[in-house]
């Protein structure tokens, strides 16, 4: 059986192995008590019940490993928020950043928590963190 990990490396706290992280996410999300966790972010309103359980499980694991809550600016990068934006359930973000194109033609997101790289054709927003690109003259 093949397991598809729904996330990206920016969601995994510290140097935790990806497989172990996903096993813990699956374990915690399966426990209905995860919904009683008193963590809230306004983006959670747009998640399906399954996504909400998984998001709260990821937050709990982040706290267990790092001892701190994830930064609010990190959450738009996480898988569940990306899927809600892709479905059109979550409104686009209002933040912007400077997009730069290197000598190889690769677009770099200027959001330091994201740092995604994109090939042409270039978009007006980062598909990972949802910031709008502004261009330097």
Total helices: the number is: 3
Q: In sequence order, what are the helices and strands, one letter per element? A: HHHEEEE
Q: Structural class, from secondary structure content?
A: alpha+beta
Biggest pleated sheet: 4 strands, mixed
What's the total count of β strands?
4
Distance between the termini: 51 Å
In terms of DSSP E residues, the strand content is 5-15%
Averaged pLDDT:
91
Task: Pick out the low-confidence regions.
Answer: none
Morphology call: globular
What number of structural domains do the residues give? 2
Strand order of the largest sheet: 3-2-1-4
Q: How much helix is in the residues? A: 25-40%
Provide the gyration radius in Å: 16 Å
If you had to describe this structure to a student in words, what would you say it looks like?
This protein has 137 residues and is an alpha+beta fold. The protein folds into 2 domains: 79 residues; 40 residues, no CATH class. Helices cover 29% and strands 10% of the residues. Strands 3-2-1-4 form a 4-stranded mixed β-sheet, with no helix packed on it.
